[in-house]
Structure formats: structure tokens, C-alpha cells
Amino acid sequence: MATDELSSKLSRRLQIEEGSEDPVAVDAPGQHTGSEEKANTANANSELGAKLLRREELNEGIGEHSLPSMKVFNPYTEFKEFSRKQIKDMETLFKTYDAGKDNYIDLMELKLMMEKLGAPQTHIGLKNMIKEVDEDLDNKLSFREFLLIFRKAAAGELAEDSGLCALARLSEIDVSTEGVKGAKTFFEAKVKAINESNRFESEIRQEQEAKKKQAEEQKQRRAAFKELQSAFK
């Protein structure tokens, strides 16, 4: 019986190879059949065709290879105008209101943040706040976009009555590493830093003028001494 079955299978394979008979697909248990199998085959063929076409275009110089982005965001190198202490304080503030712990502040989290800071915003106001710094258009704030708020504030690019300006003004950032003492807010710190810088420059100019005056007096004394010496010769 087994020999007859084997002989039948071999005979059928020979007929298929000689083209005298078409092969018939046999359904295996657990496999899709009929229209499902045809659809899967069509999808596979379509995907394979698209890949082959893309490969051919690249070989002919049409299009560009798309490589995954390897850029890593480093706040300390990109936001050099801020000290490490400032950035860490901003990060702490960001994480405080990132209730979902997904490294983003969404609309509802921003709403809570502005309420806690004492500057509640309308729904439209909150959307406008995000829109102003939302570079990737995902309708939420990443940490980089959060830092952009303070960059824009420091550069004077925010309207004084805007929600972002209120956020930057009311966020207490410790800037003691810059030598500014007693600064409660970001803007107070910047004003004091400018005043300290101006005072320092003024002191340097005064020292330079004093040294110049002292050198001139020494020159006059030497000249007077030489005149006195020549008088005794």
C-alpha cells in the first residue's frame, strides 16, 4: 500500500515537471486558503516589487538613502547661554509637571503648571503657548522646547502679556553659580547679572585710569629729578 502511494506521488511529480498537468495546492492545517492566500501573496509581491523598485532607483542615483537620525539632544552644548545649574533647575521644574512621566508636558499638564504658578490660562491660551515653541508640531512640549521658552525670554522675544512670558517670569531658577545673590526669578537674575557686569567693567576702567595717572605722575617726577640733577652739574 505504501509502495503504491509512493509510486503514485512520483508519477504525479513527473507529470507536473513535464508540463502535462498543473500543480494543485494542498491546504495544510492552520494555513489560510482561497482568497486569503491570494491576498497575502499579492501583498507580498507588491511589497517585494516596491523594494526592488526602490533598490533600482538608488542604484541609478534617483532618491537618497534614508538613514535613522543619530542626533542626540544635549542641553548643555545647545543652550550654552545657561549654566549647568540653571539647566538642571529647569529640568527639575519640567519633570515636576510631567505627570505622565513620558518626557513631555501636554496641554493638561501645562494647564496645571500655569495654575500652580498663579497664572491660569484659557484653553486657547494654553494651545498658543505650546504652538509658539512646538517645533515638531506634536502639540506638546519636549524638554528642548521647554528650554526654548527661557531662551526666547532672555532674548526678549516673548510678548510681556503672553503665557510663556508669565511662565518664564514666575519660574524660580536658582542662578547662584553665576554669582548673582538673592535672585528669585529668571528675569531678576538677568538684570542683576547685567548690573554686576557693568559694575565690574566700570571698576576695571577706574583701575586702568588710576594706573595711567600714576605712571604719568612717575614720569613727571623723573623729569623733575633730571632737571634738578642738571642744575648741580
UniProtKB/TrEMBL annotation:
Record PROSITE patterns: EF_HAND_2
EF-hand domain mapped to chain residues: 85-120, 121-156
Biased composition (Basic and acidic residues): 202-220
Pfam families found in the cross-reference section: EF-hand_7
Gene3D superfamilies to which the protein is assigned, alphabetical: EF-hand
Any one Gene Ontology molecular-function term assigned to this protein's record: calcium ion binding
Region ranges (Disordered): 1-45, 202-233
InterPro entries documented for this protein: EF-hand-dom_pair, EF_hand_dom, EFHD1/2
Keywords: Calcium, Metal-binding, Repeat
Identification of the protein by name: EF-hand domain family, member D2
Organism: Neolamprologus brichardi (Fairy cichlid)
